[in-house]
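Self-study notes.
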Amino acid sequence: MDIVKYRVFEQEDLQNVASFLSGLKDYYPGFEKWLVRKTSEPKTFCYIAEVDKNIVGVVISAPENNKTYKISTLFVHPDFRNKKVGTTLVKLAHDDASSYPHLEQIFITSDKSLLPTLGEWLHKNYGFVPLYAEPNRYIEGHAEVFYFKKFRKVVS
């Protein structure tokens, strides 16, 4: 049985995270430069899921403004899907969002070609709803779907 460990991203992880997420470059031109910039911003929340020091999942998120929080990247290796890795990463991002007192919504986007699997999972498990699709946002012929969820702070 694989034991998944979760930890905060550190700058020395950048090369391994970039390699793990390399398939996203096909959907998002300029992804590598964005990753370097995003992971160095102070408000960015980045968590890594690992098995035997190998990355099996990543979440990158941050507040967009005082009222909106964006999960920019959520990716789980196919061998670790349906094993609660994505669920845990989303929960960690949600916990980070809870530290911002005025948030009203959380959103995540996805290339439409990755649907319906991701969209169904986001709706079923977290109540995200697709609000709109923006054609040609990153690549000609591809639409980026925006999923939103009203943010409710979890009080413990």
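Second protein, same conventions, sequence then structure:
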Amino acid sequence: MCFRLNAWENKDQKCLLSYRKSEVSTQFATDNEFMKKSLRLAQVLQRELKGKVISKVAKEVGLGVSLLHDWHSAARSPSARNMEQARKLANYLGLTLEELLFDERTDREVISSTSFTDRGVQYRVNIERLRKGDPE
């Protein structure tokens, strides 16, 4: 049984983000179906944000209300310029960036999660059970 610990902190965030980026890039580089993937951000947001106030979520995540509203209504798609905001939203929702953008579920299960704030900085720690045999 494997566990993955994700600790989101300001100092360590860049290292973890670069690891995730290289992991996703490697997967896409070897996956010829990358070009066939369709962006499903609006559908994911409509499902995940159901019953929530968009302006409140935007404030909690640190996004512009108009940006989140446009993504939610499919009026705009994320660009390279705002991938950092998409990653923040994915973290807030407990999703990977790929799950948020393409609605692709991974074989993982969050078995414990906690959030806390220290000196105005918000942290979240997830412990995930990965599929059996996963090398991570």
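Instructor comment on the second fold: The longest helix spans residues 10-30.
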